[in-house]
Design goal:
- By secondary structure, the protein is of the alpha/beta class.
- Among the domains are: 32-136; 138-169.
- It has helices at residues 2-31, 87-90, 138-167, 172-177, 179-215, 218-225, 227-262, 267-273, 275-304, 306-321, and strands at residues 39-46, 57-60, 63-73, 79-86, 98-103, 110-115, 129-133.
- Strand 3 and strand 4 form a beta hairpin.
- Helix 5 crosses helix 6 (218-225) and helix 7 (227-262) crosses helix 8.
- The longest helix has 37 residues, at 179-215.
- The protein is elongated and about 190 Å long.
- The protein starts with a helix and ends with a helix.
């Protein structure tokens, strides 16, 4: 009885170990597809991997040349992806190759796509690090397509409502049935055609005029073509430019003079803004008026005086003779 129990325990242990080895082998085959071939380990740095997982394919020129060994986050903006590339395929891949995250079809699994460079580098070796590019983000593309689809639906709805309104009663058919409106439209088109014809005729005339001027035809053309007149005109412009300097200087001096007059303490400022001086001038003018009136009265009194009456009479006679 004891021997049978021991045999059952050994058989169970053997089956358990075999099952463990089978599961381990399947796991290794799933995570490292090139388990029985010589490989080289290379790496690339990405800002994001878009769902890439360990065991996904590494593809070069459309051919699977290896698998992804590991994915490790180095910082908040750098993700290191290590890859196992078969040695017999690695000799065709140069160190200037570029790695990017791609998809196996539109909705397939992710993979690392290697793209050939300019061919200036040598074959990749163990531990080589490849340059990387930002791959196509299918999620972002689908989100963009979804927004574009929503906008297209909105535009189609608005266009349908517009065409329905135009085709409805009182819309575009009613406009075509309105004979007065049709006649007005025809008249407007005819006016536009006449305006275009007049514009073409005017353009042709201007073109002929310009050609005539360039050829020296007419008084203005002869004036423009006359080199002597051109030289005199240039001399006149030169003389005006030379005279502009003194004029500008005189203008500046006049500006400074007027500024000085209106500046605080200047004559203009004193006469206009100083109330005491203004009142004094008003008193002087008033006194002059009073003195003038008094002098006139004194002169009239002298004319009536018997001592000066003869003198004023002689003056009047001389004035009448003249």
């Amino acid at each position: 009885m004891a021997s049978e129990n021991t045999r059952s325990i050994k058989l169970g242990a053997f089956v358990l170990v075999g099952l463990i080895l089978l599961l381990g082998g399947l796991y290794l085959l799933g995570t490292k597809r090139d388990l029985f071939s010589h490989t080289l380990m290379v790496s690339a740095r990405f800002t994001e991997v878009n769902g890439l997982r360990t065991g996904d394919n590494v593809r070069y020129a459309g051919i699977d040349v290896g698998t992804v060994k590991g994915i490790r986050i180095l910082s908040d903006t750098v993700v290191l992806v290590t890859m196992l590339v078969r040695a017999d395929e690695a000799r065709h891949i140069r160190t200037d190759a570029v790695a990017r995250i791609a998809s196996d079809g539109l909705m397939g699994s992710k993979l690392v796509a290697l793209e050939a460079g300019d061919g200036s580098g040598g074959p990749i070796a163990e531990g080589a690090e490849l340059h990387s590019l930002h791959g196509l983000d299918t999620d972002a593309m689908l989100r963009t397509l979804s927004r574009s689809n929503d906008n297209l639906v909105a535009i189609t709805t608005d266009l349908r409502a517009l065409t329905h309104g135009l085709n409805a009663e009182g819309g575009l058919p009613a406009l075509f049935k309105d004979t007065v409106l049709v006649q007005d439209v025809r008249a407007a088109v005819a006016d536009a055609a006449a305006t275009a014809a007049n514009a073409r005729d005017l353009t042709a005339r201007v073109d002929r005029l310009v050609q005539g001027l360039q050829a020296g035809q007419g008084a203005l053309g002869a004036l423009l073509a006359d080199t002597a007149t051109d030289r005199r005109f240039r001399d006149l412009v030169t003389a005006l430019q030379q005279a502009a300097g003194p004029l500008l200087h005189a203008s500046a001096e006049l500006d400074r003079f007027t500024t000085g007059l209106h500046a605080p303490g200047g004559l203009g400022h004193v006469l206009v803004d100083d109330t005491a001086v203004t009142q004094g001038l008003r008193r002087v003018v008033a006194n002059l008026d009073t003195s003038s009136a008094t002098l006139n009265e004194d002169l009239r009194a002298l004319q009536r005086n018997w001592f000066f009456r003869r003198y004023f009479k002689e003056k009047e006679k001389e004035k009448e003779k003249r």
